[in-house]
Amino acid sequence: MSAIGPDGMTRRGVLATGAVTAAMTATNARARVTGAKSDPAAGPTPMPLTFEVNGKLVELSLDPRTTLLDALREHLRLTGTKKGCDHGQCGACTVIVNGQRINSCLSLALMHEGDAVTTIEGLGTPDDLHPMQAAFVEHDGFQCGYCTPGQICSAVSVLQEIAAGVPSHVTGDITGKIAATRAEMTERMSGNLCRCGAYANIADAMTQIAEAQS
C-alpha cells in the first residue's frame, strides 16, 4: 500500500502531480523562448503573398508550407491544374511562371512573390480556345483528360522554348534557330506523362501549331 500523508495524498499521487507540473512548466518555458503558442496544432504563422494569376493581381495569406499547386487549387479554386503524383514526376501540375513551365507541386507558393502565373484557365476559355487547346481537341490529344491541362501548358511553353533557341538533349549546346521537329518536341515533352497513351496525337497537335507559327 502507498503511504498516506497528513494532507490525504499518497506518495504515488504526489509523484504523479509533480510530473504533470514539471511537463507543463517545460512546455510553457519553450513557448516563451520561441514565441510560439503552447498549442502545437496552431501551426506556423500565415504569411502574405501577392502575385499575378492569369492576368489578375491576387493577395493571399498562406501557411509557408503551402505549395503553388495547393495555393492555386485550394485557395484560388483554379482546379484545372491537377495534382497527380505530387512529387514532380508526372507533369499534371505544370503551369507557366514568368514565361517558363514548372511543376507547381515542387514549388512553395511564397517563392513566387511578384511573379506572373498562367494556368490552363488563363490560356483560353470554352468559348475562346487557345490555338493549342483547339489543336488538342482536333487531334484527340487526350482521353481521360486528367493530364491534359499540364500537357497543354507544357506544349505552349515548348514551342516558345524552341522559338527562343533554348537547347535540349536533342539539339545539344548550339546557337541559332532550332527546328520544331517531332523528335525535338517529343524530347521536351518527356516530363509530361499520359497514362492513356495519347502521345502520338499530342505530337500531331503540337506539329500543327508549330507549322502554323513557322
Structure explained in plain terms:
- With 214 residues, the protein is of the alpha+beta class.
- It has 3 domains: 11-42; 46-122, Ubiquitin-like (UB roll), CATH 3.10.20; 124-214, DNA polymerase, domain 1.
- Helices cover 38% and strands 12% of the residues.
- The chain has 7 helices and 5 strands.
- It has helices at residues 11-34, 68-75, 120-123, 131-138, 148-163, 182-188, 199-213, and strands at residues 47-53, 56-62, 94-97, 100-103, 116-118.
- The protein has a 5-stranded mixed sheet, sandwiched between helices.
- The radius of gyration is 27 Å and the shape is globular.
- 30% of the residues are buried.
- The model is unreliable at 1-7 and 13-21 (pLDDT under 50).
- What is the H level of CATH, i.e. the homologous superfamily of the largest domain? [2Fe-2S]-binding domain
- Class by helix and strand content? alpha+beta
The amount of beta strand, in percent, is: 5-15%
CATH architecture of the largest domain: Orthogonal Bundle
Unreliable residue stretches: 1-7, 13-21
DSSP helix fraction: 25-40%
Q: What's the tally of helices?
A: 7
Rg from Cα? 27 Å
The averaged pLDDT comes out at 86
Strand order of the largest sheet: 2-1-5-3-4
Described by its quaternary structure, the protein is: single chain
CATH T-level topology of the largest domain: DNA polymerase, domain 1
Q: Please count the beta strands (DSSP E, at least 2 residues each).
A: 5
Structural domain tally: 3
Q: What distance separates the N and C termini?
A: 94 Å
